[in-house]
């Protein structure tokens, strides 16, 4: 069990480097299953627990996976099974992204129902609707979803009822080896979709229109391994931008792509923060009192739900009352209770949170209820009086590389502690943790060839 300890009151300055995008690297690793020839080399793969989890899913399917120095190599030439086990898939929703590639390549897939952060019900009906349209037969039972096709999948016209990121990605991957043309209407437009399309295209696929609401995929017969650089993580970048703004700091967020952060930049500018996009990053200067603003989360290019809780931390320090409306996930305000432990005044009305600004935040013992909630509590801790202890670090490890080190590099007073714990505490924590961050004995099993960096475990 570990905790982040933050002592508030430090102004952040300097430069911080953004890692590769979690939400790009996960579908890209899954797409590597489509390569029947050659090896896939994925560069700037961030050393995150989620990356380990999806890599283990691939290993369980018979692919060879190695990880070293932010480079993942996948050899998927010989797959041994089309069944992805509960053991790994339950830990992370994105594991379900192996279904499209497996179905397309092997004509069948059996995947455990996915887990993930408890931010909403997160159905997968749109993924399944897409696979069915491509000719797959879907059945459900004993916690597994099975998809089968007789012969190759066949291209189809698919309209998504919601512009789901995961469904768009899964269908794109399934359609890459289908016979004929597939169109996805009301497709998600996130930069990570474009990154996946670029990856598929360099593997030999023909995907057009990614980044727009209409994606066209012309199926090909075979795909091959390639070398690909993952795009920088816009949510990690946005988190450091908020860290700069909340502490009245001056920080260069190296690698941040301003174009991917449009709504975050617009809202921060409205609040009075100066943002200067540079050649390879974004400078954030916060030297004025912050103004209250209203924020509504939406699919890209709207304000990202993955930045909602971090934005709430910032709005707690603004002058006036702000309203955040969460439209993407129905249960993504769990951080509110934790902020309240830090003396925040926030009221929930339906899908909106009403935030009273100018909060005198005080350090407290709080718990990360999901990945971004954890980041937001650390941000609040940066400006709280006294010491904040953030537990639930396994959530944070899913999406942030060396968070304490990066923030302390900017001057923050933050560190991570491993705690001595009673057997009861250890057992409780063990239940909450994903398998990937459980004890060293598990990691030491020769099940998996991924090299784990010491600071990661
Ligand atoms: C690994 C990854 O990339 N995760 C991101 C991805 O998650 P993920 O791909 O799971 O999110 P989706 O875009 O699919 O979900 C958006 C909304 O659509 C709903 N939905 C989704 C699929 C479906 O079949 N039916 C359905 O109703 C969901 O419940 C949710 O309300 O996009 C989310 C929305 O930007 C982000 O918060 C996650 O960080
Ligand atoms: C919700 C998130 O991720 P996932 O879809 O992997 O749970 C996130 O990155 O904030």
From TrEMBL:
GO terms under biological process = cell division; cell wall organization; peptidoglycan biosynthetic process; regulation of cell shape; UDP-N-acetylgalactosamine biosynthetic process
What are the subcellular locations of this protein? Cytoplasm
Please state the Enzyme Commission number of this protein.
2.5.1.7
Enolpyruvate transferase domain span: 6-407
InterPro entries linked: Enolpyruvate_Tfrase_dom (IPR001986), Enolpyruvate_Tfrase_sf (IPR036968), MurA_subfamily (IPR050068), RNA3'P_cycl/enolpyr_Trfase_a/b (IPR013792), UDP_GlcNAc_COvinyl_MurA (IPR005750)
Q: What class of enzyme is it?
A: transferase
| Modified residue annotations for 2-(S-cysteinyl)pyruvic acid O-phosphothioketal | 117
The residues the record assigns to binding UDP-N-acetyl-alpha-D-glucosamine are 93, 122-126, 306, 328
Active site at 117
By its UniProt entry, which Pfam families does this protein fall under?
EPSP_synthase
CDD domains membership: UdpNAET
Cite the entry's keywords alphabetically.
Cell cycle, Cell division, Cell shape, Cell wall biogenesis/degradation, Cytoplasm, Peptidoglycan synthesis, Pyruvate, Transferase
A GO molecular function held by the record: UDP-N-acetylglucosamine 1-carboxyvinyltransferase activity
- Region described as Disordered: spans on this chain: 425-457
Reactions it catalyzes: phosphoenolpyruvate + UDP-N-acetyl-alpha-D-glucosamine = UDP-N-acetyl-3-O-(1-carboxyvinyl)-alpha-D-glucosamine + phosphate
State the family it belongs to. Answer: Belongs to the EPSP synthase family. MurA subfamily.
Q: Which PANTHER family match?
A: UDP-N-ACETYLGLUCOSAMINE 1-CARBOXYVINYLTRANSFERASE
Fetch the HAMAP family from UniProt. MurA
Role according to the record = Cell wall formation. Adds enolpyruvyl to UDP-N-acetylglucosamine.
Designated name of the protein: UDP-N-acetylglucosamine 1-carboxyvinyltransferase
Taxonomic lineage of the native organism:
Bacteria, Bacillati, Bacillota, Bacilli, Bacillales
């Amino acid at each position: 069990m570990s905790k982040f300890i933050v002592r508030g009151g430090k102004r952040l300055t300097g430069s911080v480097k953004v890692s590769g995008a979690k939400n790009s690297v996960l579908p890209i690793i899954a797409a590597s299953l489509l390569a029947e020839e050659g090896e896939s080399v994925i560069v700037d793969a961030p050393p995150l627990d989620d990356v380990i989890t999806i890599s283990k899913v691939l290993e369980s399917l018979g692919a060879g996976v190695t990880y070293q120095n932010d480079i993942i190599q996948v050899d998927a030439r010989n797959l041994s099974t089309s069944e992805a086990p509960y053991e790994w898939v339950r830990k992370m929703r994105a594991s379900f992204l192996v279904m499209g590639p497996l179905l397309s390549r092997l004509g069948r897939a059996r995947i455990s129902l996915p887990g993930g952060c408890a931010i909403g019900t997160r159905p997968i009906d749109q993924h399944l609707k897409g696979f069915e349209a491509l000719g797959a037969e879907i059945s459900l039972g004993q916690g597994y979803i099975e998809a089968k096709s007789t012969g190759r999948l066949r291209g189809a016209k698919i309209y998504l009822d919601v512009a789901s990121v995961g469904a768009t990605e899964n269908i794109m991957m399934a359609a890459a080896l289908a016979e004929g043309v597939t169109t996805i209407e009301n497709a998600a437009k996130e930069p990570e979709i474009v990154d996946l399309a670029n990856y598929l295209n360099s593997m030999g696929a023909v995907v057009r229109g990614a980044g727009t609401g209409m994606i066209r995929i012309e199926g090909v017969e075979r795909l091959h391994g390639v070398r690909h650089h993952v795009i920088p993580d816009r949510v990690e970048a946005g988190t450091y931008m908020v860290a700069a703004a909340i502490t009245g700091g001056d920080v260069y967020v190296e690698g941040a792509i301003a174009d991917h952060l449009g709504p975050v930049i617009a809202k921060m500018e409205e609040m009075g923060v100066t943002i200067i996009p540079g050649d390879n990053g974004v400078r954030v200067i916060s030297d004025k009192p912050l103004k209250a603003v209203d924020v509504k989360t939406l699919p890209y290019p709207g304000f990202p739900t993955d930045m909602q809780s971090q934005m709430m931390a910032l709005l707690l320090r603004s002058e006036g009352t702000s309203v955040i409306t969460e439209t993407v996930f129905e249960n993504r305000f769990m951080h509110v209770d934790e902020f309240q432990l830090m003396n925040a005044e926030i009221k929930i009305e339906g899908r909106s949170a009403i935030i009273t600004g100018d909060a005198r935040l005080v350090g407290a013992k709080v718990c990360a209820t999901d990945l971004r909630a954890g980041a937001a509590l650390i941000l609040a801790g940066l400006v709280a009086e006294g010491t904040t202890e953030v537990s639930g670090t396994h959530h944070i490890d899913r999406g942030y590389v060396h968070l304490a080190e990066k923030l302390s590099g900017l001057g923050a007073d933050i560190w991570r502690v491993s705690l001595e714990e009673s057997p009861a505490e250890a057992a409780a924590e063990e239940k909450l943790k994903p398998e990937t961050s459980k004890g060293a004995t598990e990691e030491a099993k020769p099940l998996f060839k991924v090299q784990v960096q010491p600071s990661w475990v």
